[in-house]
Amino acid sequence: MNGLPTTSRGNVMALYQALESYGVNPEAIIKEVGIELPELSDNNRVVTAEMMDKLLYLAVRSTGDEAFGLRFADFIKPTSYHALGMALLYSPTLRSFCQRLERYFAMITTLDIVTFTESKQGCYLSTTAASEYSDITKRCHSDAWSAWIVNLIRLIYSQNYFPSKVSLFANSESQQERYQQLFGDQITFSASETRIYFEPKTLDMPLPTSNAELARANDKVVIQFLSQLNEADIAVQVQAKLIEQLPSGQCSKENIAEQLHLTERTLHNKLNGAGTSYHKLLLQTRQSLAQEYIKSNEVSLSEIAYLLGFTSISSFSRAFKQWTGISPRKYQKQVLTEF
C-alpha cells in the first residue's frame, strides 16, 4: 500500500517486549534502524520493509536465537492490531476467522500476504513474502506468523488445539522439539511456503468467543483504516461505505457514489477496472454478514434483516435463499442442530 511495503507499530512493540524478555536492550536496536520511541505511540505509525528486516536481523543476532520468531509471537496480542485483533477474536467460526485474516491482513502488514485455501489438497492458511528478505528474517516471519495464528486460535477455540499439519521455512537441524511443542508432530521443515492446515470439520464449529455484532463493528473500523491507507483501492472504499450505511438503508449506488464524491458512472468505471461491481460488493457484504450473524445465534432474523438494510424479513429471506438455496430459518436450524 502506498507503494512501499510496511508493517504496523504493533509488530515493533511486540518485538520490543520480546527483546526485553531476553535481557536485551530494545531501545538501542530500534533506534539503530531509525525509529524513535515516541513515534510508536502513534497507532497509525507504520514501518518500512527495510526497517523491519533490519530489526529482525538485529534481534536474532543480539539474542542468538534462530527461532526468535516463536518468542516474538508470544508478545503479539489481539490488542496489538486494535480493531482487526478484536474482529478476529469475535469471529463466529474458524472459517470466518481465516477469511477475515486473509481479507484484512494488509492492516497488520504488507510485507507478507495471507491466503486461505480450500481444495482437494486440504484447507490451509498460507503466508508468502511480498518483499525480499534474508534467510534469517524469512525464518522469523514464517515462525512468527505461524505461532501467532496458532496462539490466537487456541485463545478463541481451544487451549489444546494443534493444526493438522504445518509447513515452515525453518530447517529441522536445531530446536525441533521446541517447534513440536507448539505445532505438534506433523511439521514439514525447509518449506518454500508457510502453511497451517485445518481439519475441514472444524471450520464451521461455533467459537466460544463469537460475537457477530462486535466483529462487524470492528470490521468497519478496519475497512475505514484500509480505505484511508490505500485511497486507490476503490473496492475497499465502497465496502467501508456499505458496512456503514447498510443499517440505515441508505446504501444505493447513487448514495455511495455521492459519499465518495464520484458520479455513478465514474464509480461504475472504477469498480469495473478493479474487476468488480457495486452490485457484486453489495451481495458479498450482505451474504457474508448474514451468515456470520446467523451462526452466532445472538441476533434475531428480523434484526439481521434490519442490519443488512432490508425493508422486511420477507425480502431478506428471499435474498438469502437466492444466495444459499435455503431460507434463513432452515439455515439457522441446520447450524444449530449440527453443532
From TrEMBL:
SUPFAM superfamilies: Homeodomain-like (SSF46689)
InterPro entries tied to this protein: AraC-type_N (IPR032687), Homeodomain-like_sf (IPR009057), HTH_AraC (IPR018060), Tscrpt_reg_AraC-type_HTH (IPR020449)
Highest taxon above the source species: Bacteria
Keywords, alphabetical: DNA-binding, Transcription, Transcription regulation
Residues annotated as domain HTH araC/xylS-type: 236-334
Protein name from the UniProt record: AraC family transcriptional regulator ligand-binding domain-containing protein
Organism: Thalassotalea psychrophila
Tagged with keyword DNA-binding: yes
Keyword Amino-acid biosynthesis belongs to the record: no
